[in-house]
């Protein structure tokens, strides 16, 4: 007597497989949304500002760490920054430096050296100019 094979029940997808598929769909949709929004957002020119982050005493005087922020979306290249230190007594002292670039939405750091202590005087920082990369 020959035995009939037992009927096979249809297999259903495991819950973990559905969860991973859903996660993959969510990540893919998120990436596409970010790309579309970035493509539709108008490009804004560089908007640069400089601020003194810290002052450190060094053998040659004082080193001022300057943070240059770009709130625009386009990158600025060859960014020229000038600092003028006006001490309580004496002539103003000028220092300048150039950053290779500051990316859109980014912050870069440079250092200026002064003979006098910036804490004792008035330090004015100016972004003098930049070029398009």
Shape: elongated
> Using DSSP, what is the number of strands?
6
Provide the succession of SSEs: HEEEEEE
Q: For the CA atoms, what is the radius of gyration?
A: 29 Å
Distance N terminus to C terminus? 86 Å
The largest sheet has its strands arranged as: 1-2-5
Low-confidence stretches: none
Helix content: 10-25%
Name the features.
133 residues, alpha+beta, three-stranded antiparallel sheet, 45% strand
Task: Please write out the topology.
Layout: H1 15-40, E1 48-58, E2 61-70, E3 76-86, E4 93-102, E5 107-114, E6 122-131
Antiparallel strand pairs: 1-2, 2-5, 3-4, 3-6
Verbal overview:
This protein has one helix and six strands. It is α+β, with helices and mostly antiparallel strands and 133 residues long. The strands form two sheets. A three-stranded antiparallel sheet has the order 1-2-5, with no helix packed on it. Strands 4-3-6 form a three-stranded antiparallel sheet, with no helix packed on it.
Describe the structure concisely for a colleague.
By secondary structure, this protein is an alpha+beta fold. 20% of the residues lie in helices and 45% in strands. It has 1 helix and 6 strands, in the order H-E-E-E-E-E-E.
